[in-house]
Structures are given as C-alpha cells and as structure tokens.
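Subject: sequence -> structure tokens, single chain

Hey, anyone have a minute? Need the predicted structure for the following. Not urgent.
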Amino acid sequence: MSARALAALKECDQVFGEFYTSRLIDSTPEDLEKAIGKEIVRLCRKEVEEDETVIDAAKKGRVAFVTAGDTMAATTHVDLKIRAMEDGIPTRIFYGVSIFTACSSALGLQPYKFGRTVTIPFPEPGFTPLSPYENIYDNWSRGLHTLVLLDIREDENRYMTANQAVQWLLDAERAKGLGMISPTTVICAAARVGSPTEKVAAGYPSKMLDEDMGPPLHSVVVPGKLHFIEAYALVRFAGAPEEIADDQNL
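Reply:
Had a minute. Here:
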C-alpha cells in the first residue's frame, strides 16, 4: 500500500473491505485496522455486487473500499465504481500491486508474452468445465504464457493449491488429449508473491505435483514459447530443469 493510500484511509469516515476475490499476504485486516486506527467493515460478495451498502454510506460521508491486490482488476469492483459515478459520487483509486504483473516478475517471464488469464475452479460433482484448459491451449498454441489463477472459497477457508491445479491440468489433458501437458511440459508455480515468504518453483508435472509451496495464495503459469533469458530465469529463480536453457528450439 502506498503512503497516499494509507493517508487516505486515515481521512475516511468509514472503511469497507472484501477478501473473497483475494486475501492479504503475510498480514491481516486487523493489522490494517491498527495502522489506520479504524475498523474495517468486512463485506460478503452479495453486499458488494448486489446491495448498495458502500454506495449508501458514500452518500453520507467519505468512504473507502479496500481489497487485496489491485482493486480494479476485478470486474465486480469496476461495476461498483460505475454505480458510484451514476449516483454522482466522486471516486479516487489508489492502485495496488497486482498478481497479473508480480507473478511474471517473480518468475522472470516477460509480461507482454502472456495471453488470456485463466481461472481454475474447484471440481464439483457434475461440474467439470474444460474451458480453462481450452483457453490455456489457445495461448500455448500461439507461443503465449498463461497466468492461471486458482479458486478461492474464502467463506469456507478453502484455497486451491498449485498441486491441485497441476492435477487438474493433467486430468484435463487426459480428457482433451491435445498434447499440451506432457511429462516434459514445464509448469511454474508462485506462492505469496511479494511477501517475505514468497516461493517460486518450476518443473515437470511429476515434480510440481509434490512441490510444497506452503500456505496460500498460489498461482500457476503454463509457459508458451520461452525466450532464452526466460528459460535461464526459470532455472535460476525457480529451479527449473537445466536442460530447458539448453534447448535450441526455445
């Protein structure tokens, strides 16, 4: 959080927050409350997306709405800003660090070589969509990397792990059979990016299935065509197999 954002929070009459789209890393809402000297009213998805809780409060005083990461990266928060503007409420955004750029930086991958971002949901009985795999394949077939975000069930305290995501990819490969995920496909994982306990790892599926990434939040990257500097970075930063840096077809 920038110094300007911290100062703005201290000036607000009321502070709302949501932690279902992401969560704070190596910190808690209570830590933030101590820093700003105010209580943070936690909102559920319905209160943000359907109710007018924040809008009604903003009509009566200066209000802040906080999230982890970069707030405007989520569609629901864009909608909140639109609703505020339609009601004549002035808004100001303090941009945060986003996993969309931080993950590529942590792994040493070039951000402009990423295609569409994909989210993998927790498997549910009778609900096994393969569209995430198809979108990753579309990026991969064009030589583009894919940032894979992992499902969050904040109300259940469930956070998908990188290991679960790798298993999901292997299962999807068996179902689709397009040849994207093979025994020598490099898969990257990043955990708690930007925190003192950040961890990154890269390797073949057999390794990544068992890689201990520690507590959430986790993200996964399926690389496309690697530039040789990217390959060296994955070897040095994330422990990828040395041979990927020697592959003359990169």
